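Handoff note, outgoing to incoming analyst
You'll be picking up this chain. Sequence as last confirmed:
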Amino acid sequence: MVLILDRNDVQKVLTMKEAITVVEEGFRELAEGRVQMPPRQLMTEPERNGWIAVMPAYIKKTKALATKVVTVFTENPKINLPTTIATILLNDPETGRPLAIMDAGYLTAIRTGAVGGVAAKHLARSEAHTAGIFGAGFQARAQLEALCEVRAIDEVYVYDVMSEASEKYAEDMSPKLGINVTSVEKPERAVKGCGIIVTASTSTKPVFHGSWLEPGTHITGIGSHMASTRELDTEAVRRSKVIVDLREAAEKEYGEILIPVSEGSLTLDHIYGELGEIITGRKQGRKDDQEITLFKSGGLAIQDTAAAHLAYSKALNAGIGTEIKLQ
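Most recent structure output, in case you need it:
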């Protein structure tokens, strides 16, 4: 029998706090060499501004084996569909039989928020309590929720090119998290005075000037995921200690890195290390309160696999989902 989990089922069993824990462990296992994760396979659909990826991974410690198929079509909101649509297949690593098929739209947002939380936990100043958020969609909400799990955030400034979206974000997130969230009209206000900045937009070009960054800031960049697009300008990257989720992916897919390299402004050696290296202590994270740190992530299959395995285990224990027979 195969367990089918729809979006509501996944929402019932997957919490941000637990997702942060399993995603952090997944990165630890990756750094320790106990993960199989082939490079994700990508296709684009230029006519529809679409992006499709197939992402498999196996985490040996938890015996979590899964494959995600995810699509990102930026024009979808115009026809009342989400930008990101994803599905995960979870398999038994001992027999190969399918264990679960689950909607991964919500899961993708939570696992991406979780990695932002893990990065902030290891790289942001411990006393950072003010955050600037670029973008006001579901991912921007997940990122703030994760930040509040790892830092005592009490003041947030959100900027979106659609002011009504940032106003709705502030209206919803303030009472949900019990903190002061303010919609701002100028991007500078979401940078200056903020100890943590998150870019979670759909922009294909930089959303603020790197010269605005103040010493001690931590940045998480997760909105862009193609070699030709970026949310952060060359100056922001140049001024930062750059940590990525996976160097191999960054050197092929991340515009924040590749565009400055193509300009001749930076080299690939500007990448300091991977998040797993920071988590395991192989490399030092923040060295002092003046350093600017940047975590750039395009998303890895280990995040999906760790979150999907957690959701499946909790759903089984709670009797949630629908069982069907495939064979």
